[in-house]
Amino acid sequence: MLSLKGLDNRGGEADVTFEVEVINTNTAPEVSPIVDQTLNLYTDLFEVFWEDVFSDPDGDAVTYEAYTDNIETVELFYKDGSVLVKPRRLGKTQVTLKGMDPREGEVTTSFTVRVVGNITTDQALSESWKVHPNPVDEVMNIKMYSPVIEEMTINIYNAMGVLIKTAVSAGSDDTIQVPVDNLQAGIYFVEIATDNAKSVKKIVKQ
């Protein structure tokens, strides 16, 4: 019920009362965020169940969409009540999910998918890294060109084959830094080893 009153400057007044019916109110669906995912290229799939992510306060039926900004990295498959994220190649992409109700209410959420893979051969490991720059000064930067998700042991040998320094990395898809400021100038050999592969490259310490 809504009432309005009008007054003039000589004390006259008038009232009017009327009812207001509010119809077709709508609250957009609600969403629960999804944490970023790291998937192994060879072994992992990630399934998102729509009802775990979206709900509608009004009880409306919700329809769903899913898309990615890089279809070369992951592929999306719709299932009954869910969407399946399948890795296709190494890399990183964003997956966006959208929930929509029949009255044009909508909401979205996005999460990052990082696709990695174990390296299983010496050749593949050798092609996955280099020391840059080389010669090195106080810090040796190992640039990783392919993601390695397993633990890596980094051994540094002198020209006589004597082990001088050892470091361990939990895995990296970027750059690993190893301090070498305590090494004398000369030629050294850097070995990277995983459970499945091994690679050795020569460096020059300034």
Question: Helices, strands, pairings?
Answer:
Elements: E1 2-7, E2 13-18, E3 30-31, E4 37-40, E5 46-49, H1 50-53, E6 54-55, E7 63-68, E8 74-79, E9 82-87, E10 91-100, E11 106-116, H2 122-126, E12 129-131, E13 139-144, E14 152-158, E15 163-169, E16 175-179, E17 186-193, E18 198-205
Parallel strand pairs: 4-11
Antiparallel strand pairs: 1-2, 3-6, 5-9, 7-10, 8-9, 10-11, 12-13, 13-16, 14-15, 14-17, 17-18
What is the string of helix and strand elements?
EEEEEHEEEEEEHEEEEEEE
Mean pLDDT: 89
CATH architectural type of the largest domain: Sandwich
As for the CATH topology of the largest domain, it is Immunoglobulin-like
In CATH, the homologous superfamily of the largest domain goes by the name Immunoglobulins
Tally of separate domains: 2
The structural class is: mainly beta
Q: Mind describing the biggest β-sheet?
A: 4 strands, mixed
Helix content: under 10%
- Please tally the β strands and state the result: 18
Strand adjacency order, main sheet: 4-11-10-7
Radius of gyration, whole Å: 30 Å
User: What are the segments in which pLDDT stays under 50 over at least 5 consecutive residues?
Assistant: none
First and last CA, distance: 87 Å
Spatial shape: elongated
Please count the helical segments. 2
Please write the CATH class name of the largest domain: Mainly Beta
Share of residues in strands: over 45%
